[in-house]
Amino acid sequence: MISPAGGGPFSTPVWRIGTVSQLVESGGEPYWLVRNPDSGRDEYVPIPVLDSFTIAQSVLLVLALTVASENCRQVMLEHHNLVKSRGQLKLAACWDLSDEEISLVLKDLQKRVRLGVVVLDEESILTPAALEHLQSWDLQVDTFH
Description:
Elements: E1 2-4, E2 21-24, E3 31-35, E4 42-46, H1 52-66, H2 70-78, E5 82-85, E6 88-91, H3 99-109, E7 113-118, H4 128-136, E8 140-144
Parallel strand pairs: 7-8
Antiparallel strand pairs: 1-7, 2-3, 3-4, 5-6
């Protein structure tokens, strides 16, 4: 779940869910299924490698597709992690975030976005180590069991 960081009175943390994505782990390569709020279409963010750092990067891509600024998306387009198809930005088939892109997404979203992770199965690839990567980047992450 992606929510504004402070949505209540005096910027208190209140959940106002703007975008929801689902981690699909069955049958082949895992991926995020994301409803793009701009186009209303479903987007797929594949996870090519199952290490915690790559999984954390895939969360940043979900954020970039859904709530990042136009400037942030433009830089990702220039680095070929996003592509234009029929006037819409989509994720490139093979992605690899540079340190510059990671910094840019984090700078853009750290203070204005909260992530909520609902854990339905303890055997998920979204491990505590992947969540620690997100938190080490100063993203606000709440976990619900």
